[in-house]
Amino acid sequence: METIGVQHFLVVAILLFSVGFLGVVLRRNLLLVLMSLELMLNAVNVALVAFSRHSGNMDGSLFVFFIMTVAAAEVAVGLALLVALYK
To answer: Which of 25, 47, 69, 87 has the least C-beta neighbours within 10 A?
Structure first.
C-alpha cells in the first residue's frame, strides 16, 4: 500500500485555495465571499500542516492554531457586519 506524501496534501490545498479564490472573485453575495475566504484559509492550514509534518517541526501546527483563531474572529465580525448591512 502506498503512503500519502506531502505532494498529495499540497494538491488538495491548491485545489481548495483555487475554489475559494474563484468564489471570492466570481460571487457577489457577501456571505458566499466570506465562506470562500474561509475555504482559502483552510487550504493554507492544510498546506502548513503538511509542511509541518513533512519537516518534523511543529511550528506549522502552531501557526494553524493562530490562523483558526483569527478566522473565527473574522467570521464573527463579518457576520455582524452582514446582519447590520441587511437590517
So the answer is: 87
